[in-house]
Every structure is written in structure tokens, then in C-alpha cells.
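Please go through the sequence and C-alpha cells given here and tell me how the chain folds. Record follows.
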Amino acid sequence: MDYSPAYIISRYLIGEEILTDPSDSGSWPVYIGLLPDDNDIPHNAVACIDTAGLRDRRNMDGENLFHHGVQIMLRAEVYNTGYQKAQAIATELEGVDHVNEVISSDTFQLICIDQTTDIVVLGQEEGTKRRELFSINFLVTLKEI
């Protein structure tokens, strides 16, 4: 697979207009693997991070089947705004059932996305900005088709 599960999920959420591509200068940009804190990064931002998944089984042809771990981290200037965005993301991903996501010339089928934690409130950032932090974890079953 040429793309990580976190990247595939981020592209899906951009396509559904829940989040935006950082290059588009829109609200709620989504980054992969980290949540940057440069001066030109909005207060309200999201990171999709690849985490530990679960090996399900191995098919008769030797293919290992995995449920890939993906964590969504949110940072928000206002608590309720961040919590509502986390709810919107969870609701959108809950409805995924054999959905195709095309990236360049590759097509991935998002078979199922299972939320494994509630919205976790991580408190406020340290330092002067004191923005609110949230996290949600998922197991993602997908395949390249």
C-alpha cells in the first residue's frame, strides 16, 4: 500500500468536507502524523496519526488482514467548537461501509471504521495559547482495489 491508513482517512474526511487540505487555507486543516504549531497554522486544526492496529487473521492465500489503528487529534481555540468537530468526525466515520477513496491512480475501499474510544478530552495545551485538545481512536479495515 502506497499510502498510510491515516492519510487515506484524512483524504476521505477532506472529500466529505468535514476537514480541509492544509494547502487550501480553509478552516480545520488536517495534517498527517503531527499537529504543527507554526504561526501560520490555525488554532483549529486536526492530525490523523497512524497507531497500533490489530492483526485479524491470515487468508488461505497467505495475506494478513489487519484492522489499522488511526488516531484523530484535534486542537481548538474554543472547547465546544472542538468537541462539536470531534463529534462530526466520529459521526462521519461511523457511517463508512465499503466506501471507495481514490488517491492519484490508487483506489482504496474503506470497508469499516470502528470507533474504539469515546471523545477523549486531553485538557488544554501548556504555554500561552491554552487551546483545547481532543482525541478519538479508530480501527480501520481497508483494502486496495
About this structure: Strands lie at 30-32, 45-58, 64-76, 97-103, 106-115, 120-124, 132-144. The two ends are 10 Å apart (CA to CA). The helical segments are 5-15, 79-94. The mean pLDDT is 93.
